[in-house]
Write a structure and sequence with these properties.
The complex is a heterodimer. By secondary structure, chain A is of the alpha/beta class. Chain A is 38% helix and 16% strand. Chain A has 3 domains: 3-168, 3-Layer(aba) Sandwich (Rossmann fold), CATH 3.40.50; 189-356, TPP-binding domain (Rossmann fold, 3-Layer(aba) Sandwich), CATH 3.40.50.1220; 370-544, 3-Layer(aba) Sandwich (Rossmann fold). In chain A, helix 1 crosses helix 2 (30-36). Chain B is built from 5 helices and 9 strands; from the N terminus they run E-H-E-E-H-E-E-H-E-E-H-E-E-H. Classes of the chains: A alpha/beta, B alpha+beta. The complex binds thiamine diphosphate and magnesium ion.
Amino acid sequence: MSRTGAEALVECLKKQKVDVVFGYPGGVLLGIYDTLFDADILHVLPRHEQGGVHAADGYARATGKVGVCFGTSGPGATNLVTGIANAYMDSVPLVAFTGQVPTALIGGDAFQEADIIGITRPIVKHSYLVQNVDDLPKIINEAFYIASTGRPGPVVIDLPKDVVASKTKAKCNGEINLPGYNPTYEGHPLQIKKLLKELSEAKKPVIYAGGGVIISGATDELVKLSEQLSIPVVNSFLGLGGFPSAHENYVGWLGMHGNYASNMAMTETDFILAIGTRFSDRSTGRLDGFAPNAKIAHIDIDPASISKIVKIDIPIVGDCKKVLNQINQYIDKFNWDKNREQRKSWIKQIKVWNTERPFSYKKSDKVIKPQFVVEEICRLTDGEAIIATEVGQNQMWAGQFYKFKHPRQFISSGGLGTMGFGFPAAIGAKLGRPDKQVFDIAGDGSFLMNMQEICTAVQYRVGVKVAILNNKFLGMIRQWQHLFFNKRYSYSCLECQPDFIKLAEAYGCVGLRAEKPSEVADVISESLKIDDKPVLMDFRVDREENVYPMVAAGAALNEMIFGE
Amino acid sequence: MRHIISVLVENHFGVLSRVAGLFSGRGYNIESLSVGVTDDPKYSIMTIVTHGDDKIVEQIIKQLRKLINTIRVRDVTQVEHIEREMMLVKVHASPKYRAEIFGIVNTFRGKIIDLTSESLVIEITGTKDKNKAFIDVLEVYGIIEVVRTGSVAIARGSKSTTEFTKQDIKNQEE
Ligand SMILES: Cc1ncc(C[n+]2csc(CCOP(=O)(O)OP(=O)(O)O)c2C)c(N)n1
Ligand SMILES: [Mg+2]
């Protein structure tokens, strides 16, 4: 059956079981939009393309499905760039469709022409310029396949106006032809045996688990391994939720603002089993001080992540879940009694570190401590909410004081550190998981970067809660200026800001404010009653609170700075 | 260390820019890059000459393999191989010196492919070292221009240069 490229596109999206897309129309997309008008797919109109792509990202992180967004040629496409880079850094499956000027005009600086394939080349897993409408179904299939398999990532499909307007008979039959793309899923059995052998010799082993555990759905396998062998588990920042934080083997998260016990454990360990993680500089601290006495095994589906930063002794290329399963099957073949006593005292040591210096802050009944707000959100949602964050201090406190129970519960811009990500991501997450309470733990600065999306949330009745930890500062910047630039707060003070209550009212949603610690719980409880529109909560927090502990840039993990 | 990397790629839109961009974006060094289609017009082979320590070259290879349109990637310098580069050299050659230059060209097994009253164009093929030696010798006559293809390389023996699949090489590494 012959139909237009636009119709074929929508047909393929249905085939891919896409139920929501985030897009903003424009001249070259009109044909596609005309088709979307009748399609049985929820189309969400963000108020800025950046909001759309972050929402698709949040949707993908919360559900594990591929996020889909549209932007028109030129500025619509370039507005997607930050979101694409963000998804690339954090391995989020995303398909971004961009409009393009008609094929005959490409290269001539036509109105709203931008070489989006060229612009996004270093920040995509792959990209396509569709030159022939007959290729379109196959390209869409390939794009979804590439985005969601192996190490996930964003794929851009650039659609010239004439191509989507032409007729095609090409079927959406799932055809793909990717001879150069074959991710490895099973771990090499010899490597797995080698790993278990070395692990059985270890006296102070630790598992360092990253976002890959969540992406591959390997939480149960990880818990099983950790329990069977009594191995403590440290998360990376994006690994939060991948291992239940209330578990007795849970140590915490490592890195710049991670907890004392994790950073000490990573420094003193003699064997690291790294799973689905990429040794980011925020996690490792100064490299020559990172795990100086440890042998390191690394399971990752992306071979290029192995030995990229830290030399790996036992590389295992494969899917975290599959490989952990394989490991769990071999466990009985090894002798785990060798260092039983040393291992017991290692676990005891970690417990001591954790009781000595847990995440903490100076409590107050006069001024709202930002950490207290996060604790209260955790308490009042029973640790079950999906927590998106903005970037800065708010993000670190969310990671420190919300106690995550499940994978896909924590949605934060780790690799790119994109201010303005959290709110649209929370909208996407809530659309994907309407059964969940969804919070954006926000900074006042970050929230202003994509606050236009309040309108989107109101229009689609998305009940997200925005908890602004309002310090009237670019707090994390101010913290660095405090610590390293003699408290010279150069352009980090946000003295002018909107009245967030009136702002909420102007958009037709609910605004709440807490100025005293005693008001915090009431405000949160009030917000929890509302599920058909967004709620903005303005928490006036202690303005100059700092995030501790802190591993300063250039310091090793065990060289932490603590607050008073 | 100098490495020659052979990359078998699908002949798709933008592949060259993906490969070249990988090198510039990740700060890898590139001495030369040459591309041409293979006997099967669906594929091309890129020959990339790069410098770096083992860790960097390992990353380069892994990153190249990660590109969706690369089929095989091989560090040719790890196997017995032959490397060649072609140069076109334009040199001053007044009638007085012509015979001398002809002699040099013969010794290096080059070819004269253009001749004017004032100059010559020589085509020469060889290893990097040979080509450098040739330029050094011609220097005194006054070189007008040198245009080179960049190196291409092929493995010795009956296996094709990129025959090792991604899987083979992964297994080897493990
Ligand atoms: C788009 C973008 N611009 C700049 C930065 C640098 N930056 C990191 S944290 C931060 C301050 C964030 O302020 P706010 O959102 O109020 O959060 P707080 O630290 O006060 O909790 C800035 C400017 C960034 N991460 N992202
Ligand atoms: Mg702030």
